[in-house]
């Protein structure tokens, strides 16, 4: 009599060894595709936000603020590939996150508007720092 993992008593034995058993049936391929889309959009958004600092080193504040904010927007909405837009919006505006969401979205818009129209270096940097603080609070 075999014991433990190699036992044939249970019909689901061997499904946890490779981790890809969920994606072998066509019914779950959409979940796998959505997970890849979510991961790639989150990584793209994070890369945009990180690489925007290189643009800041060059001294182009407007481009920095635009690319940084767009990276945050892409990262924020990357989860919609998995949970869908209605559930994402419902989660964002849940009572626990309501004010954090309002402040974060307002700061995204304010950062973009002030950096494009005023082109003030100090104000743009302050807004990006406050935007980052709001993102941490949102998380």
UniProtKB/TrEMBL annotation:
It holds the Pfam family Got1. It is found in: Golgi apparatus membrane; Membrane. It comes from the Eukaryota. InterPro entries: Vesicle_transpt_Got1/SFT2, Vesicle_transpt_SFT2. Keywords: Golgi apparatus, Membrane, Protein transport, Transmembrane, Transmembrane helix, Transport. The chain crosses the membrane at residues 42-60, 66-86, 98-115, 121-138. The keyword Transmembrane applies. One of its GO terms (biological process) is vesicle-mediated transport. Belongs to the SFT2 family. This is Protein transport protein SFT2. It comes from Parasitella parasitica. The gene is PARPA_14089.1 scaffold 47526.
